[in-house]
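G., before I forget:
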Amino acid sequence: MLYYLSDYTEGAHPRILERLQESNLVSQPGYGEDCFCAAAREKIRAACRKPAADVYFLVGGTQCNAVTIASLLQRWEAVIAADTGHINVHEAGAVEFTGHKVIALPQQGGKLAAETVRDYCAGFYANETRDHMPFPGMVYVSQPTELGTLYSKAELEALHAVCGEYGLRLFVDGARLGYGLMSPDCDMTLPELCELCDVFYIGGTKVGALCGEALVFPKGDMPKHMATLVKQQGAMLAKGRLLGVQFDTLFTDDLYFKISRHAIELAMKLKAAFVEKGYPLFADSPTNQQFPILTKAQEEKLRQYAAFETWEPLPDGRKAVRFVTSWATREEDVDALIAVL
Amino acid sequence: MLYYLSDYTEGAHPRILERLQESNLVSQPGYGEDCFCAAAREKIRAACRKPAADVYFLVGGTQCNAVTIASLLQRWEAVIAADTGHINVHEAGAVEFTGHKVIALPQQGGKLAAETVRDYCAGFYANETRDHMPFPGMVYVSQPTELGTLYSKAELEALHAVCGEYGLRLFVDGARLGYGLMSPDCDMTLPELCELCDVFYIGGTKVGALCGEALVFPKGDMPKHMATLVKQQGAMLAKGRLLGVQFDTLFTDDLYFKISRHAIELAMKLKAAFVEKGYPLFADSPTNQQFPILTKAQEEKLRQYAAFETWEPLPDGRKAVRFVTSWATREEDVDALIAVL
Amino acid sequence: MLYYLSDYTEGAHPRILERLQESNLVSQPGYGEDCFCAAAREKIRAACRKPAADVYFLVGGTQCNAVTIASLLQRWEAVIAADTGHINVHEAGAVEFTGHKVIALPQQGGKLAAETVRDYCAGFYANETRDHMPFPGMVYVSQPTELGTLYSKAELEALHAVCGEYGLRLFVDGARLGYGLMSPDCDMTLPELCELCDVFYIGGTKVGALCGEALVFPKGDMPKHMATLVKQQGAMLAKGRLLGVQFDTLFTDDLYFKISRHAIELAMKLKAAFVEKGYPLFADSPTNQQFPILTKAQEEKLRQYAAFETWEPLPDGRKAVRFVTSWATREEDVDALIAVL
Amino acid sequence: MLYYLSDYTEGAHPRILERLQESNLVSQPGYGEDCFCAAAREKIRAACRKPAADVYFLVGGTQCNAVTIASLLQRWEAVIAADTGHINVHEAGAVEFTGHKVIALPQQGGKLAAETVRDYCAGFYANETRDHMPFPGMVYVSQPTELGTLYSKAELEALHAVCGEYGLRLFVDGARLGYGLMSPDCDMTLPELCELCDVFYIGGTKVGALCGEALVFPKGDMPKHMATLVKQQGAMLAKGRLLGVQFDTLFTDDLYFKISRHAIELAMKLKAAFVEKGYPLFADSPTNQQFPILTKAQEEKLRQYAAFETWEPLPDGRKAVRFVTSWATREEDVDALIAVL
């Protein structure tokens, strides 16, 4: 069975397992105060060209979102997201569980436009009864989005600008950041991203790690008492070294970017094959998630060879489905899939 | 430097790393629905002699406590704990963050007596204004306790009985459960523990795993929609296999118990040395945490050789400190420490 | 100045003040256990023709919404509302503060259609990853709505039916219920409403009381420990008699319905005048809130005579505004306003 | 039956009802922006001799506690209280429901000593693992306490000093403040209280109002967006005028203090009678709550004539009970009670 279900269906990049083994019996303090986390933080700062950035390692994406949002928002503030945003749809209400509203705004192709945010905020501040409404305090976007699409540099600059106008922080969910940055369509670098947002994370779980996300505050303005806030949300890892070793490995010799590029190359090959064989695309994704539309017959045939997720049933009976490549996808398996399309 | 700071200062038992490597490229679904979690659940059920138990893997101890308590309590209920209990003292208010009160009651040697719970509940139900008070809904205890002490089977039976009288669930925090069960002073087995509580967890993080706790509902009455509750607290691990592989390994060939016994043997050797050399003990612990009391001179000398934690400054200027052994402690390092006592 | 700002700009119906005076020195227990609350509950049960209904008095509308939703939902559940619903827009995130998500769905004229709810729920239960989403557990509607419109009996029956299909409770916010029931367009009675929902409240604050809402569980299935839940949300009134006396008065000799009818008659007179004089209406409201659209010149002129709220600026520069009548509105003041239209 | 159950068993001081009637049909905006609230705020500022103080009116005591604590604390902070404190015992976990821990410390006669707070904070800041603990952020005391006792000026100064040392805010629950200030044992005035704390409230519910508490920030540093925070907790009263008219009345011609003194004079008369007739006192209260200890026979006899609350059953079978006087207590009823003691 060819496995395209998601980008978290295998373990870790082999180099990570090697490094876990090499470092295994080095005694180090817990809670992220170990030498591996320290080294990983330095390498991430260097990759970001932000020597004063704060970096905090967490275990997973939803956790990262809930911790970041609940730690940065004031109690009277809500977070704005695309209505397709992960925090609005697929996190079981984790943000609301911390007491904050998600203000869901319309999107196009999974992307939230700066104008949409501006219109909402202008309406909010023009409203005489706004004291009875949660204040917009943050904008949450994913790069790439849940639909595999990418914000261009200009789009992110526009969001950054509107955030500046209304005193909003801009938070970029980078659970698949590597696959975004290595896309041929991406027109921004990691250091450039750092200039355009207040906080973001570099996803490890989906990009070669067993687990782990590196939360980055490029301006070095992580909230006071962050460790206490993390602990309070049950998100502190006792053996922080597990995250440190992994990110240290991923940011040594550009491993993070190399394995991301591998996944993108295979995704583009697969996408080209879908297009060539006449499969319509539900979303035009330049990243590692591809969304062909299948007829019932096509789906039945393909499910004999490959595992993939149903994305959305269409009104006409066809289905948008999702094929995901990752650092672990083998070129021969992509060729095998293409052969049966 | 001899390292006695805690039981989470090294990586994982080598067999775990081997198994992570062997299984690394097997493609499996996420979120704990993989074959490794399934196998691990079976092995834990067998070790518990509870074929119908529910087992849910989580990443860490505080997370496990907050998820379990918030998932089992009704909104009007609070959890009773010893005032020294981990949830009352060292979790940054994680239980309260989920909206529930911790009712802290007095303890002896870190242990909550059944009579203390009974008196509290009797007073509560005799109080005419109890509708204005949070209802006691659960009792939380640690086995072993934060002070390394152990509940005897009779003590746990008494707690179980009072819980039955007042409709409380009994939750046992087993972050160090292996070190408890393998203590020479422990008079209960894992299957016996299963009969005496409603929910408990088998700590992995402190007993040879990189991370992970196995939450066990011996009666098979895990709350409905547990996955959604876990997700809502940001506690769901995408690559659940990381937990599955580790617990499968720990519960193969009794590895969990063997490595726990190793830590206990070294702790007992160390304790005997403390006693023999005239160091008073702050708590009489039969498990892997030892609490000698040091004068300032003793402390200064020992800190040249060993890393250990200050537990509590005493009024007379001396200090209770903590030495912790684990699966990773080497006998030669214990001998080296004893040599300089 | 003619006062049309809202329906809570005067004190209470004079009969209420009289009854407060008459009962003032009668000694009674607190927290709603007084004889006035008991009498008021009986009268409300009679008006509902539900002798076994549970009735709980609370102070205000947002409080009522937050308490009801947080008390009835399970932790994994969210509440569905129209995107214009009061809980989604004008309660400062009070529902989210209790940990629950508001799922905002599109509406027409402020009303949520049964089909919209059915489509959402069908999509939810067809989604393979629904465990990662908050479960729909309740539907919240207002009768009349925030736009003054009314659900017909058929519309409410359809909502009731879809709630039955998907195990949702139906909650009707009746902050202006009297003004709804007394509208010429309303095709349902209070007892009929009782058959069509699981819980609703009879608004007092906007219908002649100083404060107070009567939450009604027609089936008598109020949650266990309701008093504790109410207290936990800071919503319990020590002198519950204040609510009891008021509702007892309002439900004596049909006062509640009589004063509601008065407000509706004046609102219909005003609406007819708006229409006759060529003012377009932003919403076609058959209740006590009227929403004419004004040009800048019209607005400037009217603001010399009357106080009213801006509802929504329109893209063409005109403004939808709101005029509200109430039990306290005098016919002569309506005539005076009409004279200057 | 002579009624000594509590100080909220009658309606309101007659002057308040008169003023409600006089002002009833004056049209005013809602949410506390009316002229009555404005006037009341000015009179309270004058009584406090704090012309720049912020004053916010809320409906009830538990609500006031939960709103104040949740609005002033940072997310990583907890509130310190006496273990007998109202927020710790009798508010159904309302503070914890907002996500904050109550750190309960031992007390004497219901009072928290400055040294107890200092010891706790010193221990906290000496603890190397304090990042895993909720930070103390506020001290909560009641004046008078739940046991009727009073903090002396020196005691409050000492608490104020320790709060300054550790960056804690000092919050005084004044649900019965009038009865405290008018006690013969009270050595501080309202303006003096203003100098000794960061925030306090002047209880109306128990001192002659139908409902209402006036929250005072003497330094004028009420949190930003207070109205939004209040709304989010469901605590905003639509007809804020109800609170404004009442406090305006209470702070006209010293009515608040006069009626408080009346209650105290009767309480002292009653206390003297208890002592004279040989009833031991459970607490030596100089305020309007009196706590005699009764034998079973005494209790049975007194219950024929009077309604009063059981406070605490004593181990020897006797009972501490509570008799409460208020603005509404009649001297002839006190004499009647004394006659049967």
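The radius of gyration of chain C is 20 Å. The interface with chain A takes residues 76, 78, 89-93, 96-97, 99-102, 104, 126, 128-129, 131-134, 309-310, 313 of chain C (CB under 8 Å).

More on Monday.
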